Amino acid sequence: MTAPQDVPAAHPAADRVAVITGASSGIGAATARQLAATGLRVVLTARRKDRIEALAAELTAAGHRATAYALDVTDRAAVNAFAATLDHCEVLVNNAGGALGADPVATGDPEDWRRMYETNVLGTLHVTQALLPALVASGDGTVVILSSTAGHATYEGGAGYVAAKHAEHVLAETLRLEIVGQPVRVIEVAPGMVKTDEFATTRFHGDAEKAAKVYQGVAEPLTADDVADTITWAITRPSHVNIDLLVVRPRAQASNSKVHRTQ
Ligand code: 8X3
Q1: What's this model's pTM, rounded to 2 decimal places?
Q2: Within a domain: residue 234?
Q3: CB-based contacts of 130: which residues, under 8 Å, 6+ apart?
Q4: Ligand 1 center to residue 207 CA distance, Å?
Q5: 161 part of the active site
Q6: What are 160-209's pLDDT values in tens digits?
């Protein structure tokens, strides 16, 4: 009997589609660039239409295949409508999300906690549920969930984000158990300190000084390209190879709270 993972892909390698959420900046944009360069047709989604359209135009001008679709992953009806526009889908990169606040449990803003749960966890749930039938139907699908090292250990001031990222980790682990035997891989990539244009600034509600302190004295935090490279590597392994969990940190970071700083 033919094992499900040996079912040939419904679409030839030349026409494989990758959906990337949160593709307007940072890790999402870098991943879109790198996946497009492997030959995948990338569908860029994010709330900021102007940014994803500009990136899609840049990739198209470079000879790649890219389209943009404005999407808020917390809006389930919008996610369903987006899924209905796709003929097929082979790869989903759940990247949308982020941190809000770095306050202790005693004083953290419940609104920050709620928004982090909605974007990171429910956003990932919405898009994964909506695209899973297409990923299964493709005969060779891959779901990537961008969690974080915050999904694996806590730190002071991190509880709201840590809780959301732990939930994404659990989502990845549970989904992998539930769909084993179907032709879909579930890959979790958990980055540590990554210096992007927006992550820390968003976390501190626009306070650039606080945001700069996150990376102060750290020789080489990871870049968005470093993480996109690990995501692309994991996706481009042979179909039977499932990278369950890939934890990636800069050399200067030994744990969430043990970071070497030169000043
Ligand atoms: C980002 C890692 O340490 O800021 O996902 O929580 S951390």
Answers
A1: 0.94
A2: yes
A3: 79, 80, 82, 83
A4: 17
A5: yes
A6: 999 999 999 999 999 999 999 999 999 999 999 999 999 999 999 999 99
